[in-house]
Amino acid sequence: MTLRDTILQQVQLVAAQQNKTLAPLTDDLFLLESGLDSLCVALLVANLEDELGLDPFGSGDQIAIPRTIGELVAVYEACAV
After folding, report:
1. Contact between 56 and 79 (Cβ < 8 Å)
2. Digits of tens for pLDDT over the chain (81 positions)?
3. Predicted model pTM
4. Host domain of residue 31
5. How far apart are CA 33 and CA 48, in angstroms?
């Protein structure tokens, strides 16, 4: 499973756990238009840290907050390098 697949799987898992209906997940889909709310995004980041062992937002580096699914994946891909 690729990093992208894991992230998208976690997006779907959090949405299901929080009874949210997701829009089709594409790279240009804005997170705020995906069906996830701010709690869901926080849960997603926590789940991804547990699943991947990566926390790009806690590294101390200045990272632009991802606005889209594609940007979210890119942040994690950059952190995994």
Report:
1. yes
2. 899 999 999 999 999 999 999 999 999 999 999 999 999 999 999 999 999 998 888 866 777 889 999 999 999 999 888
3. 0.90
4. 3-80
5. 20
